[in-house]
From TrEMBL, chains A, B:
Residues 241-301 form the NrtR DNA-binding winged helix domain. It comes from Neomesorhizobium albiziae. SUPFAM superfamilies: Nudix, Winged helix' DNA-binding domain. This is Uncharacterized conserved protein.
Amino acid sequence: MQDKAIQAAKHLVGNSRSQIVNADLIAVVIAVTNGEPRSLTIEQAHALPSGPLELGHRSLQSGLRAWVERQTGHPLGYIEQLYTFADRDRTGDEHVQISISYLGLTREEQAERSATHGWRSWYDYFPWEDHRAGVPPVLPDILMPRLLAWAGDAQDPNMSHDRRQRVAYAFGLDDHDWNEELVLQRYELLYEAALVEEAVRGRDNGSPRSIPGRPMIADHRRILATAIARLRTKIKYRPVVFELMPPAFTLLQLQRTVEALAGRLVHKQNFRRLIEQQDLVEETGETMSATGGRPAKRFRFRQAILAERAVAGTKLPLSRT
Amino acid sequence: MQDKAIQAAKHLVGNSRSQIVNADLIAVVIAVTNGEPRSLTIEQAHALPSGPLELGHRSLQSGLRAWVERQTGHPLGYIEQLYTFADRDRTGDEHVQISISYLGLTREEQAERSATHGWRSWYDYFPWEDHRAGVPPVLPDILMPRLLAWAGDAQDPNMSHDRRQRVAYAFGLDDHDWNEELVLQRYELLYEAALVEEAVRGRDNGSPRSIPGRPMIADHRRILATAIARLRTKIKYRPVVFELMPPAFTLLQLQRTVEALAGRLVHKQNFRRLIEQQDLVEETGETMSATGGRPAKRFRFRQAILAERAVAGTKLPLSRT
DNA sequence: GGAGTTATACTCATAGCGAGCATAAGGAAA
DNA sequence: TTTCCTTATGCTCGCTATGAGTATAACTCC
């Protein structure tokens, strides 16, 4: 049917002119070990695993898996596309550089040391994002004063007010609460305010001020921020946390993992209630003699849930404790 | 700092080998007019506006805008990236074809007729998705029997059970409710079951059965499904509906728009409550003499909300009426 | 055996939301 | 003009989800 129309439209899709485009695949691979959320890095923790899309790759995902395994020896489980960026190629010739970024979740098992790659806490890159032990000092001591100064420095009062509003919203000032999902917004504000190294890099920055948070090459830290934001959002409505857990675990371990990701604490009893009433887990029968205190039952994720509901609603109880 | 490490990592990002990659930009442009959600199409409604990424484009977004305006004369407002796909190029030569798809929202104003492009109700492509007037007959009459037959036809009982589960979840059988967000899952199931034309296209399909839903070239219908799913999810927590509304509107018009998108009806009083208590709108002062019945107040979207909260929480009251 | 620590079970109060009833204010038909 | 139909708008009711706190239980370590 309508073959003519389809035929006529073909040229729009598979166009004949071949372009000069480079495509990179970039992976943010996350694991949580000992209550620390970590990201897989290469090049002395300055870059995310990545590599060009090649003809041998059957798909974007398989290409990504190949690169990560080649560079780090780590196989990937759950994978999800994050975002695609484009830049005029930095090499100067007329190329367009496309970066397709992915979020991957695994467990950090074979902790083999390597000079080139390794796991790094994501709070090394974003120290202002960890609110598990209260507001991190870097916020009130360094970032907030500078952000507010930056807002005040704006050309006209309107822009100043606008900046101030955005800062308040992103960082939970005034009547706003701290919203752990706004990782990217915060990073971008800090970038605008030249409070991250990437923003002043290469620029003639008069007095090099101490800037918190470890930088990365190119826009890798921005991609990491995107991944964290996505993950913090996603754990609230999809049972992805389990990708990060060992086969059996206690509810406290599960809670610590969630807290590590969210960067905030949750109410213990309510957390249990939520997890249990959603039938996400089942008891293994064993118990675990904890570090101290009453032994905890061990649970495993109910694989059945994937088949049954395919997508359940995992919810995170929030708390300001 | 760490300039050496950064330098060393450079080659991983801007790699020197240039690849043979084509990148297309594909747009799903949505408007809602007279209670019908419509998508901008070209080539006799068989394709989405699209075109190759070119060197002249400053960014992916601007490239996309350029293509849509060139092909349809329609300027775009809100834009959001959807997904990036890759296929081995169909032309056979060793190229990788990348498609970067976007969702755009506008209003269908200049309804200029054109032979090549136009607006088409998205329910022409997905007749099973419109539940505003109850369950569409195509579901019980045609699709469900065939889907269940397909599930039953599986090789082994396990696969059969699995298929049957997925169908039940996606289409709201058994104790599942109809979930309007699962547009893509439903399309993919129908594709797997060879119940959409794209799945049997080119294949030697013995008896050409009548298959519901208008097809599109390549995987454009799949992209449209992705867009609809995204939009149906998004209207529930972001005030994006307003991109589709005229400057002033009644609450019923707003409700009809939401219903058109969601493909289901909402409880009128609760809808008003939700909209009003969120301070998303303000009265213009005028009233509108409706088609029949008491005149309604007209409202406008509170732009302030964007600055104030940047991201508010718009919520859709669900209903099975 | 007592202190400290974690596990686990309940209770309570409230906000949000699905539903429905009731009234107001127009136009069209009788 | 009266009645009826239709949409607009206000308000109440009841349930559920969830934030928060209290009370035990079951171990380990002194």
